[in-house]
Amino acid sequence: MNRLAYLLPLALAACGPTTGTPVASTPAPARVAAVPATRPAPPPAGGFRPARVMNMPGLEGVIGADSAALQRRFGPARLDVWEGDARKLQFSGEACVLDVYLYPPSAGATPTATYVDARRASDGLDVDRAACVRALGK
């Protein structure tokens, strides 16, 4: 008789339901010490936290620009979305879609571009940000 035939009942028994009681050969689960949740640092006393500014080659003239400068360069924004003091402008063309995120550099200041994201218009896959800026720029 085939050796596998002897092993089949053992393999099937391993698939059966359990009673929830640990088997003697199963080690008890290790206790993990509770790790306190990490929280971001609280905002300064005035409640304003400046945004981190992206710094990549090819984005000069975009990063740091305000909405008027961006619209002079790329034309009217396809989308203009405000959320609190942050703003997102979206510019699109055949080559790509460019999302520019603007945050105020200080409390009460005019928002300027701090981050850029780019994707293909056809399928949404990421593309080189600087290449998209060049493709959409005037």
Automatic annotation (TrEMBL):
<keyword id="KW-0732">Signal</keyword>
<feature type="signal peptide">
    <location>
        <begin position="1"/>
        <end position="20"/>
    </location>
</feature>
<protein>
    <recommendedName>
        <fullName>Lipoprotein</fullName>
    </recommendedName>
</protein>
